[in-house]
Amino acid sequence: MFSWKNVLTAVFQWPVRRRIHASAISQEAIIIDGKKFANDIQKEMKVTVDSWVQDGNRKPSLVAILVGNNPASKVYVQRKMKVAGFVGIDSSTIFLDENIPQEELVQKIHQLNENENVDGILVQLPLSKHINEHAICQAIAPHKDVDGFHMENIGTLSLNGCGIIPATALGVRELIVRSKIDTLGKNAVVVGRSKHVGLPIALLLHSNGKGEIGALDMTTTICHRYTPKTELTKFSKLADLLVSSTGIPGLITKDMIKPGACVIDVGITRIKVGNKYKLVGDVDFENVKQVAGFITPVPGGVGPMTVAMLMKNTITVAMKK
């Protein structure tokens, strides 16, 4: 029945509904807490390893090789070894002089390859300039390459097969899954094409989720540091999920983000602010979080997950024997 009262009520309620909707859109992004997720995963792994050892198996073992005296590399290795100890992995670090000949480093790796008591091997990057990093990554036996950098592991990943997945890519996938981000058929943009980070991430986002690696079935575009800003913005504004791993501070800005998108910041750079140094990512965090639906901080986002996935790879390798 027609009623002026109903008409007036609808007219006056409509702007209120619009304001509520606009307010919801303007809320800041949910911060994806990589530290919390990593801690949860470490506890899960500890239970797994404890059970494995109680069944009469030896502990998984991990050996790290550190070349030179890079302070940041030392900190990273110490952090990895600390997590290894917590989850129940036997770990050790081999310290080598920064001037070690490449052939001698390869020989050290081959000795570890042949040691049946060593499950996982990692060589902390970057290496001294006189050493070919690609050659060193290829020297590690594929089944002990817990970083997942060997071409056999990258090739297996590209074929949606079950090899060792690079730890950072696996960490990004785990952040997305545990944050319950919808990915099936959605658009993803990966900014960064490195063979160790950008490419493996793109493969995990793009591949068939019914395969062995638990990929995410996204429609994925790869951009990089030389993609013109206008083109990069064109692609990024279509992305339901954006991952950046270029190491260029502030590359990803607020105007490049689709409202409500998930933004994963893999980049990490140490910059000087006044008399102090701080770590920043590729993303202009404070401004982008005003538009995004989900966002990772730097530090405290992808970094802790990379370490956790490195341990997961080590445990997986040990249990396959």
SSE arrangement:
Elements: H1 4-25, E1 30-31, H2 34-54, E2 61-67, H3 71-87, E3 90-96, H4 102-113, E4 120-123, H5 133-139, H6 151-158, H7 167-178, E5 187-191, H8 198-206, E6 219-223, H9 229-236, E7 241-244, E8 262-265, E9 269-273, E10 276-280, H10 285-288, E11 294-295, H11 302-320
Parallel strand pairs: 1-11, 2-3, 2-4, 5-6, 5-7, 7-8, 8-11
Antiparallel strand pairs: 9-10
Question: What would you note in describing this structure?
Answer:
This protein has 321 residues and is of the alpha/beta class. It is 43% helix and 16% strand. The chain has 11 helices and 11 strands. The strands form 3 sheets. Strands 1-11-8-7-5-6 form a 6-stranded parallel β-sheet, with helices on both faces.
Summarize this entry quickly.
By secondary structure, this protein is α/β, with parallel strands linked by helices.
Features:
321 residues; alpha/beta; six-stranded parallel β-sheet; 43% helix
> Can you tell me the residue ranges where pLDDT is under 50 for at least 5 consecutive residues?
1-25
What is the subunit organization of this protein?
single chain
Secondary-structure element pattern, one letter each = HEHEHEHEHHHEHEHEEEEHEH
Distance between the termini: 77 Å
Q: Strand order, main sheet: write it out.
A: 1-11-8-7-5-6
Helix content: 40-55%
Mean pLDDT: 91
How many DSSP E strands? Answer: 11
Which structural class matches the secondary elements?
alpha/beta
Q: Tell me about the largest β-sheet.
A: 6 strands, parallel
Rg over alpha carbons: 23 Å
Shape, principal axes of CA atoms: globular
The proportion of strand residues reads 15-25%
Tally of helical segments: 11
